[in-house]
Structures
1.
Amino acid sequence: MVTNREGLLVVLSGPSGAGKDTVLRRLLEVNPNVTLSISATTRPPREGEEHGKDYYFLSKAEFVQLISKNGMLEHAQYCDNYYGTPRGPVEEGIQRGHDVILEIEVQGGEQIRKKNPEAVSIFILPPSMKVLSHRLHKRGTESEEIVEKRLATARKEIEQADKYDYVVINDDLEDCVRDICDILSAEKKRTTRSGKLIEEVLKNE
Amino acid sequence: MVTNREGLLVVLSGPSGAGKDTVLRRLLEVNPNVTLSISATTRPPREGEEHGKDYYFLSKAEFVQLISKNGMLEHAQYCDNYYGTPRGPVEEGIQRGHDVILEIEVQGGEQIRKKNPEAVSIFILPPSMKVLSHRLHKRGTESEEIVEKRLATARKEIEQADKYDYVVINDDLEDCVRDICDILSAEKKRTTRSGKLIEEVLKNE
């Protein structure tokens, strides 16, 4: 029996308050084929953070060298520190048949999609701006001003959702996770990923 | 909560012996959202065949008039009779939110895909030519010569599978049906079908 053994490169984005982290945690629980990409950063580890689990903690020299060797799928600089997605572990995961998820903001997602047209991109939407506003206010840890800023950023991000292959709504968590599983399953049956499959069926007489 | 209420137009093809009919019967059992398109023909009904269930039985004049009014999604002529897919019932089903499946041979499928780029096309593959040959021989109702002809036709059809959006293998029936359900589910989350969804999320403040 012929199967496609390579996994998928999956770009997952969504605004703050869409519930990405909860969705991802549940997705990892229900779908053993999914793994999460670990980002690299030059910022120092915070207490309790582990190298190779929370982040790959690299020196600036190491990070810059990786960039120059095309070893980063995407990268960006914030507040004098580098952040990025090392190519090596992602490609190894895919070759081992895992669907490797990159949780990434919209700009990083765009870098990935441009360089990797085979990537599957999914945008997680809140049911409405009203619900998003409610979720962000409910956290209660931030001032009204900061919440308003987050909502404005969320709006800008959602306006970019049409650049993604798929949009899923996180209203009910289980539905949302099932939608993502369906997308991953369906993408593996795409003819563009199955060229060899057709050949092998024909060959095996 | 916003949802896409329109169903999908689904083209399903596969060679004789791939098990299309069994797959379809099971798909209709497990997925209440799926309906099967009924073909029209000008050949007379056989015993037990019902108008509007097995076929729409039309006169040649009726059939030709439908073609001229763009009332056929596709049509073909075999042995002096017309066969085709009436547009009306398919579009009504889709508007009611059903995924309407057109079980159709490769040429008809091509007509549909060209005129309806939004159609989702799925090709059902046997696990191998060896298995297909075994299945066709097992029927035992046809001469060796006819089986060989069917196998040659199947090979030609499978060579066209790369024109379809998806290929699914019918090795295990339940797996194959689940694959198709996943594809239908995923296709509804395609951004190209969700333009209004993004708008509505943004609007609902």
2.
Amino acid sequence: MIHSVDTSFTSADGISFILSRTSVRRFTEETVGNDDIELLLRAAMAAPSSMNLQPWHFIVVREEDLKEELRRCLPYAKMLQGGSIGVVVCGDIALYERINRLDKEDNTLYWVQDCSAASENLLLAAHAIGLGAVWTGIYPLESRMAQLRRLLHLPSHILPLNLIVVGHPFHVSSPKDKWDPRKVHYECF
Amino acid sequence: MIHSVDTSFTSADGISFILSRTSVRRFTEETVGNDDIELLLRAAMAAPSSMNLQPWHFIVVREEDLKEELRRCLPYAKMLQGGSIGVVVCGDIALYERINRLDKEDNTLYWVQDCSAASENLLLAAHAIGLGAVWTGIYPLESRMAQLRRLLHLPSHILPLNLIVVGHPFHVSSPKDKWDPRKVHYECF
């Protein structure tokens, strides 16, 4: 049996890394560097995607005016303060047109799953490099999507999934223990 | 500035851990132990969720007969062979009923995002402990959902998102480099 895992950390490290991530909602004034932004987006793009379509786009918001606009139009974007940046994760639904014509069913909604996996990678990558992040919802709420579409000049085939706020954590946040054995079923529900 | 990240591994380790995960589609005969299954599900349940509703359920499929049924009804489940197990990640849409009554918009589809983040954590946890995994799609394809509903006795408020096949990798798989700077935009699309 061959293990494909990196040897630079132990199994326990990998698991505790995942378990120790938590949402961070308050940030220092320190800005997020461009190299760090690239690391976050590289990790996001390493997510799997249906038919390997990689439907994601990432809009990085660093300008103060635009951050203020986002705080105004999204109820949970108040934490986009200080040195934090916003990353709006979007999906390109035009990629599914050809497949849907060939197929008998509508595959378009796979964009939500793929962009969500990319978002989780982005949150974990922030945690890895000592940043903090929080995922705030946009899709499927039409009112929020419409405002983001206007604000970020999104064409009609680019749908905004969420706004991830990333910055340097103001304080240490402890992860919640969400383990619940009642959510585990064997062989059938 | 305080870093909330574990000190047991370096930043580079955390990023390379995420970047080195890849889909594994061929497995040895070695079975996946119960302790490992619990680690995978603990990691999955550490994902963030909208309104902290944690809408996920996990159906672990180990029995040969049921694995064969899954291989028969899902076109991409052929890799559920040898010692590998299946984890069907499901979402409970009944959790949104009260919120949707209070709210003016339909929040139900948040289950897809939350269960996708949990799925990505599960894939990464498998990678951390030397297992391999692959995410195979069920939702939003009605035909696949109907078959899973029957096979796993799912009540109508429990929707199947995907089947994740997990096992001991037959060989080392190299991750694809999916970095694409054209997917990155600053301030607007």
3.
Amino acid sequence: MNLYHFTLSTSRENLFNITSMVNDALCASKVKSGAAIIFCPHTTAGITINENADPDVVTDFLFGMNKAFPDRKEFRHTEGNSHAHLKASCIGASETVIIENGKLLLGTWQGIYFCEFDGPRTRNFYVKIIGD
Amino acid sequence: MNLYHFTLSTSRENLFNITSMVNDALCASKVKSGAAIIFCPHTTAGITINENADPDVVTDFLFGMNKAFPDRKEFRHTEGNSHAHLKASCIGASETVIIENGKLLLGTWQGIYFCEFDGPRTRNFYVKIIGD
Amino acid sequence: MNLYHFTLSTSRENLFNITSMVNDALCASKVKSGAAIIFCPHTTAGITINENADPDVVTDFLFGMNKAFPDRKEFRHTEGNSHAHLKASCIGASETVIIENGKLLLGTWQGIYFCEFDGPRTRNFYVKIIGD
């Protein structure tokens, strides 16, 4: 019920502003009050909310995440993407946004982002709209 | 429906225990079972749950976050607060807490905190109470 | 309503795959559509979603978290577990998973994990199932 599925083609490492897609799901649901759950079904990608204005924030975000969670020679996972798994858990698989008056209750500067930490890949995400 | 708005005046960098404000919202809603969503509409602040007892946990938290996500000379965002954006995404814009018997189902040592990473500012947060 | 309580005995530091326990809660609730909230009531443990296949991902996860959030001599909290509090806030106290057709809408490789950062202890977690 009120579940929407989206697909993305990603580059190696990037943040994709998916706010308009979440808004499309909300409009389709006709829900006026409740919550939207945006969920990423992958283990080397995630969902976050951050600034929607200056693209340098995205560049700095990816740079800072690579410094905090670099690839390490001690990692044993043979796929070689343990740093991406760490980033995914740190950022989280989902965000929950309040719905009020038929709109996402986001701040002026907030956008919802799909975070690719191990692309390029074809990725999915879900938006579930729960009315109250 | 059952949406509550709060305002805070913050210092440069701090954690504010907002548990009592969330409890006030829950009481006003009269909801006995469901979930509370605590949402921060800013991109250099966030919401977390951590220890409500020893204030040194807060001091150590801010110190450790500054070590993991320091300001870096390579950052390009001209506002100079990319480290605060990183912390905000890492900690997250919201927390969801279960409501049972008209109370927040928090552990004994858990408090809900508004995390300021780039103050001083006037900040807002929302509490949405969803009954089931 | 539709609240389930689980107990775990943990080792010093580990990730426990609790997906089957969350599935048990979902089955007991008979809910077909909605959301599951998995909540940890402790301040040095958390809930995350990550790969359910290669156990080396868990090993690398714990190693990388210890590098990003090590114990530091400057920490003042006398219990000596400030690094565990930091990890708990970074990973978060809860996850929210969409329910569709009576099942958790997880990706193929996703499992839900209880993260122990300061064991061994007896730990609890809650699963709340909200239908829509």
4.
Amino acid sequence: MSVLVVGSMAFDSIETPHGSADRVLGGSAAYFSLAAAFFAPVRIVGVVGRDFPEDHLTALSRSGVDLEGLQRAEGKTFFWHGRYHEDLNVRDTLEVQLNVLEDFVPHMPPGYEDTEYAFLGNMHPDAQLDVMSRLKRPRLVACDTMDHWIHENPGELRKVLERVETVVINDSEARMLSGHNNIVRAARAILKMGPRVVLIKRGEYGVFQFSDDATFVVPAYPLEEVLDPTGAGDSFAGAFMGCLASGAGTGDRALRRAIVYGNVTASFTVEDFGPRRLIALEREEIDERYRRFVELTRFHD
Amino acid sequence: MSVLVVGSMAFDSIETPHGSADRVLGGSAAYFSLAAAFFAPVRIVGVVGRDFPEDHLTALSRSGVDLEGLQRAEGKTFFWHGRYHEDLNVRDTLEVQLNVLEDFVPHMPPGYEDTEYAFLGNMHPDAQLDVMSRLKRPRLVACDTMDHWIHENPGELRKVLERVETVVINDSEARMLSGHNNIVRAARAILKMGPRVVLIKRGEYGVFQFSDDATFVVPAYPLEEVLDPTGAGDSFAGAFMGCLASGAGTGDRALRRAIVYGNVTASFTVEDFGPRRLIALEREEIDERYRRFVELTRFHD
């Protein structure tokens, strides 16, 4: 099965205590697609400007990403410039240029509307609702969001949450959205807003999954060197959705396996700047690290 | 097998966003003992003042703790007063009165020197070395420490680390001791200082175990209500050591199981103020939560 992702395509300029990268391929849809493509065919709905280099598109299509839904608009591509602290869990956004993303209206090519697995990347909740309304036979629709929409468009966001199957957000957003500091309470409160499954990304501490009938908690893959955390969350979501779409179904066992694959795939992303490691990655490396992760976490047999 | 613990006995006054407790039973040896006693007989080496109530001693001996090595000195019991932030991972020490702990010299009753499993709670490294030198047939000696000794007595602390089997410290202390922010690097650096196993306590994020031949990473038991984190780390260490001393041995499989038992036991401690929950706890509740934890973390079969 294919996975559809609607999200941002960007140029990222990244600074971390370990170095920097200037105007590299970025955006939630880019990281999501590169990760998901290891597991299933991917369809991007997004927009880039005229300045977007052919190389980046080639890298995506070579990975198995269908770019028919990627619009090329007059103007410049979305740009983000961020700087990470010594504690890589903390970052400052130094500059954002929305550019072509400002007037972006998702366009779905014929055929895309039949996609059963869809991920609504972080964007205006109205755009997320619009995409959702066009899906003819959604099997699993998941969404991300961010502090901006939680504060500025709470009503629209609530409508999204009422309709999605799964929410994938990070811990600070979960706290903000729910008003609870405790992660279990936060997850329970978000579950009441509509989704069947709440997935909370905790960065270097792993993932917490909460639903009415199952709770799953799993640490992150421990890494000796983290160069750049950018895109880890979107890589997680991509591998998670791709793994499910690849035929595993949406039962509890399949969800847990997909979460661990998400975890493991994201652990590669942060080992180099931007999407470099993800682009060079082989599926066999993911499977090998998955097996290693089983060994790292096993305690009961 | 018995477990020996050398550490502080205290009165704690605790403030958290959820309430407070005044002059309750505290100290690393108290929490350690109450937790370890669920698994094995415990021997305390420590000191209290004349103001220490008989009730506290009764609570300990009823749990199966041998108090022969607990000195009663002229003067007042060690006192700690702390306040936790809204983020319970952060706390301020408002007052410390060392009192009888100031001149404490560990005294080992006859028979204690034969104990094979020993835990050197957070105290002056010279006192830890002294206790170690008296153990006739140590099988597993573990130690804790804190920022004060890392900064003030690095030379003496290094001697302790050269001789212990296992170090049990929290993540901020691991970073301080090693000079590395990354937890894997920190653990690797501490391993080079001498111990065979490094156990890093990450509070609500679980535990990271590192040794030359095995790495183990496990999340904490997710709790909906944390009232007071005081004593969680010492409860973890107590259940961990008690579990090993109960006959599980010191192999990789036994270590992992003991770590999870430590995790699960500590999850009870934080559910109420001071050691209240730990004192009321039944072994069957620990086993039940252990089984639940297996379900919460299982993803591969």
